[in-house]
Design a protein that fits this description.
Blueprint lengths: L1 H22 L4 H8 L3 H8 L5 H14 L6
């Protein structure tokens, strides 16, 4: 059950970030360049990675995209 909850939250994080990127006409690669992170790390964060680095990257993403913190 906890794994299902994590998967659902990761899916919501992914959708919200992707929608925000589309609204701002920005690609995930452009976002990675803008926040100074690698594309692989940004992808991991966007897909709901739970490691500390992914969480830090998501904080940067939320700030750049003007999103409220989701975690």
């Amino acid at each position: 059950m906890p794994e299902e909850k994590l998967a659902g939250q990761a899916d919501q994080i992914f959708k919200k970030i992707k929608i925000s990127l589309i609204e701002q006409d920005m690609s995930q690669r452009e976002l990675a360049d803008f926040i100074g992170e690698g594309t692989v790390q940004v992808s991991r964060a966007v897909h709901g990675g739970v490691d500390p680095k992914s969480r830090r990257i998501r904080q940067k993403i939320y700030k750049v995209l003007g999103m409220e913190e989701e975690e």
